[in-house]
Amino acid sequence: MNRRIRWLAAAAILLVSGALLAQEGAVDAAARLAKGRYLVTAADCVACHTVPGGKLMAGGVRITTPVGELVTPNITPDVEHGIGGWTEDEFYHALHEGIGRHGEYLYPAFPFDAYTHLSRDEVAAIWAYLQSVPAVPVSAPPSSLRFPYNHRSLLWGWRLLNFRQADERPVPPLDTPVARGQHLAEALAHCGTCHTPRNASMGMDAGRSMQGGSLGGWYAPDLRPGGENSIAAWSDEELASYLKTGRGPHAVAAGPMAEVVEKSLSELPTGDIDDLVAWLRSLPQDPVRAGQPAPVPASSGAAGTAALLGELRHTYHGEQLPDDGAHIFAGLCSSCHGLDGRGGPDRVYPDLLQAASVHGAQADNLVMVILQGVHRSAPARPADMAGYANQLDDDQVAALTNWISARAGVTRHVDAAEVARLRAQSATSSRGLRAILIGVGAGVLLVLVLILLSLRRRRRR
Ligand code: HEC
Ligand code: HEC
Ligand code: HEC
């Protein structure tokens, strides 16, 4: 009798602890999924692996480059078409080293040079989350890069020059806002992919971190305190609001930055945005500009224009656009931005005389906004302005750019050739920059190999 009771008690304890363990396991699994989902958002995987309106993570996003198209793969858990047949280790190698399942080099258009800083735990959480999204049984179309750019083996040259695999270590304690912001910016959000200039072999120039880079016609400004497009003049709240909503005091996020805000930053908790701000403020100062007061955009120049433009708008009939900036502005832009360019009384539309894109170190972003418009569907602050690429020719865009710049007191001159150059660059997708550059790197490498081979042959003779 006693023995039976003891036996029952033991069984009951086993059962209860088993249930508790299972429950704990379920809680663990749920927490890991939530963490994975968060990391995937912060790392902006969706921007590249999901076609707008398409199936989550099914790939097929086309990265257009002058040497052909690179298409992103399906990373859903489908065994045949996605990464369902991969092991977690293989997945880790892809993110940490940029090595594919069959040992092939992956193109650095996939930002593994940022993801290499993720810890094994973080990658495991991303893996768990990706295993939980619906499998999509469709392969992404194949990439069509031209010879020799389609030879992955040539990427070793690029890797040799530009890729440092991070140590395999747990992430150090992220116990200060700056440390958390840095990890978020460098390992996940890959801010440097766009904001750090490229070196000669088109890797990120580590010595000039966050000092401004060009991509697909756009210019991602220098973000150092006191840098050229100084965000130093913005308060922390204004900077946070720009990152979270895409609208700052005198700047809007357009082009690739609009996508970063829309798909990633606007979805992050406020604490993360504050950490990013803390990190941005901690970047080393621009030594040239250090100590100088932050530039305050001039607001002069508007006086008298409203009356003039009112008259111009009166004479504009919409059929044939004239070639001078004032006429084009009156006809196409003043309905929203106001006859004086100041955005109207309620400032729903940006004040162009103070806009960052107008006051930028170069006119690239102003030209690009005119060509492509502003499209951002972040929930807090959506924005839509149509682009005028089809309506205005290069001369007209140049005239309009110069006219607005002069109104805002910015001295610079853009000509039609410059507009044509940016227009051509914008035809290749901004995300494709890396691939083009890598292609060039690969080409250079090929030449080196050929020279080496011919030298060897000569020596043998
Ligand atoms: C800037 C665009 C971009 C972002 C962001 C991006 N990827 Fe990719 N990814 C690519 C491209 C392009 C490839 C194809 C590379 C190649 O063919 O060599 C790729 C390849 C991969 C592969 C290899 C798949 C295969 O079939 O070989 C995996 C796995 C992957 N990405 C996962 C991720 C995860 C997880 C994230 C977010 C943490 C992410 N990617 C973010 C562009 C991106
Ligand atoms: C895919 C490329 C890309 C990535 C990734 C990116 N940015 Fe940007 N960023 C840009 C471009 C391009 C602009 C200029 C946009 C414009 O003027 O409309 C910009 C503008 C900005 C500005 C406004 C600067 C000014 O002077 O007007 C800030 C601040 C900023 N980015 C911060 C960040 C941070 C922080 C990250 C990482 C979390 C990041 N960006 C990631 C491309 C990028
Ligand atoms: C239908 C209304 C509308 C028209 C017409 C329009 N815009 Fe815009 N514009 C917008 C909106 C909306 C934004 C983005 C606001 C935001 O991001 O919150 C914008 C943003 C801009 C910016 C970016 C400002 C910054 O802070 O960097 C520039 C530059 C600009 N517009 C110039 C023009 C020019 C030049 C024209 C005429 C060719 C024009 N716009 C016509 C609505 C318009």
UniProtKB/TrEMBL annotation:
Heme c 1 binds at C45, C48, H49. One of its GO terms (cellular component) is plasma membrane. The chain crosses the membrane at residues 435-455. Pfam families: Cytochrom_C (PF00034). Coiled coil: none annotated. Binds 3 heme c groups covalently per subunit. Residues 1-22 form the signal peptide. It is found in: Cell membrane. Residues 31-134, 176-284, 320-408 form the Cytochrome c domain. Its cofactor is heme c. It comes from the Bacteria. Keywords: Cell membrane, Heme, Iron, Membrane, Metal-binding, Repeat, Signal, Transmembrane, Transmembrane helix. Its main location: membrane. This is Cytochrome c, mono-and diheme variants family. Heme c 3 binds at C333, C336, H337. Heme c 2 binds at C191, C194, H195. GO terms for molecular function: electron transfer activity; heme binding; iron ion binding; oxidoreductase activity, acting on CH-OH group of donors.
